[in-house]
Amino acid sequence: MPRFESLERGTRRARASSVRATPSRRGLARLAAALCAALPAIALAQVKIGLVLSLTGPAASLGIPARDTVALLPKQIGGQSVEYIVLDDASDTTQAVQDTKKLISENHVDAIIGSSITPNSLSMIDVVADGETPMISLASSAKIIEPVDAKRHWVFKTPQTDAMMASAIAAHASAHGVKTMAFIGQADALGETFYTEVAKFAQLHHIDMVASERFNRTDPSVTGQVLKILATHPDAVVVGAAGTPAALPPKTLRERGYKGLIYHNHGVGNNDFLRVCGADCNGTFLPASPVLVAAQLPTDHPAKRLALDYIARFEALRGAGSVSAFGSYTWDAGMLLGNAIPIALKQAAPGTPEFRRALRNALEATRGLADTNGVVNMSATDHLGLDQRARVMVEIRNGKWVYQPN
Predict the structure, then answer these.
(1) Are 62 and 270 spatial neighbours (Cβ–Cβ below 8 Å)?
(2) Torsional sign, CA 66, 241, 139, 57
(3) Is the pLDDT of residue 48 over 90?
(4) What are phi and psi of 375, to 5 degrees?
(5) What dihedral angle (degrees, nearest 10) is formed by the CA atoms of 120, 123, 129, 132?
(6) Which terminus of the chain is more solvent-facing, meaning fewer CB atoms within 10 Å of its CB: N or C?
(7) 392-397 and 135-137: which strand pairing?
(8) Kindly report the CA angle at 104 between 87 and 65, in degrees rounded to 5?
């Protein structure tokens, strides 16, 4: 009996010792929490990129290839997973503002790509500045990034500016003996800013502007405007419009027997425009992204290799002949972020104001980055960073883009 009691007491002591050595459930939870807290916050974060694109409405032909390109963007950058959140602004400025607010306040994105068009991009500037969130526009107007003031401090873009393209038009027109020029453009910020640049460079080349007309994206006819233009007998007409609505002026000019030169801006660089305009656009010209004629470029063009790579990726996804400049602008925005995010990650964790500021600074510090449109060299006063190598003159011939060497 005494031996049994001794054994029982020993067993109780062993159990007590075991209980003391084994952590409780509460203790395990505290231990897990401590371990998580000890891990670097950056390892648990996810980079979020919002996109505001014109997927419906008059500018859908610009937004859809941008959306399709999102599927090709990297899902991991700098060792962090990347989520892309795409919203449709319906080609409407009010919706673009609402989408931007949602991405910043609800989705807590680290950067925004968009919008597809100038008026919407301009409407988004106040929102991204208030939210201190970097934005990369896919629209053309230089007003989106110039001047780099307190608000545009947060805004960048990938497409060539209207000034770059207007200067190319004026130079080409002058070389072809043009002395008088008319303009017809959209009745919005794109049309107004492009006209300003066309008129400025026309004057530099001693070309007289003899008419300036406007139309709305949704107008079914521009006959009245075209008749006024034809009454001035211009040697050339410049169309300042984007997407499929830009086909209406050249079609009407041809129907009315106009034989002079017709120029477009780079807002028509997609196959939907070619389809809608048809034979009426044969023999017309535009300064465009190198992507449209990548295979025809000289081998030493800085954009050729990367443009061909993007085309191969996109056409593998969407089919032969599906590529457009507007998809490439989205791809280039992805390249900018792919270059800047690893730099920002060294300073702060995604999802924080500090990370967004570091990302903005890294974007502005981009130097020597080759992309599908040229070579990017940003600065505190230049949030595009492209030079004249980023534009090429193109003729529309038999429904195809044809490179025009200088």
Answers:
(1) yes
(2) negative
(3) yes
(4) -125, 125
(5) -40
(6) N
(7) unpaired
(8) 25
Is the distance from CB of 142 to CB of 193 less than 8 angstroms?
Answer: yes
Return all residues near 398 (Cβ < 8 A) that are at least 6 apart.
282
DSSP letter (8 states) at residue 213: E
Q: What is the DSSP string of 19-31?
A: HHHSPPHHHHHHH
Q: State the chain's mean pLDDT as an integer.
A: 91
Query: Tokens in use for 41?
Result: 């916050």
Distance in Å from the first CA to the final CA of the chain: 111
Dist. CA 105–CA 276, nearest whole Å: 39
Range with the lowest mean pLDDT among 12-21, 132-141, 252-261?
12-21
What residues does 238 pair with on adjacent strands?
183, 263
Can the peptide bond before residue 61 be classed as cis, meaning omega within 30 degrees of 0? no
Q: Residue 145 — φ and ψ, nearest 5°?
A: -125, -5
Average pLDDT over residues 149-166: 96
CA–CA distance, 287 with 394 (Å, rounded to integer): 6
At position 104, the amino acid (one-letter code) is I
In terms of DSSP bridges, do strands 180-186 and 208-215 run parallel, antiparallel, or are they unpaired? parallel
Report the alpha-carbon distance of residue 174 to residue 208 in Å, rounded: 11
Q: Which long-range contacts (CB under 8 A, 24 or more apart) does 148-152 make?
A: 148/380, 148/381, 148/382, 148/383, 151/125, 151/126, 152/125, 152/383
Element of type H or E holding 129: helix 118-130
As a whole number of angstroms, the distance between CA 387 and CA 301 comes to 13
Assign 30 a pLDDT band (cuts: 50, 70, 90). low
Contacts of 46 (CB under 8 A, 6+ apart): 80, 81, 82, 83, 350, 351
Strands (E), 89-221: 111-114, 135-137, 155-157, 180-186, 208-215
Q: 147 preceded by cis ω (within 30°)? A: yes
Q: What is the pLDDT of residue 246?
A: 96
Two structure tokens written together for 294: 């990548």
CA nearest to 239, candidates 321, 183, 299, 309: 183
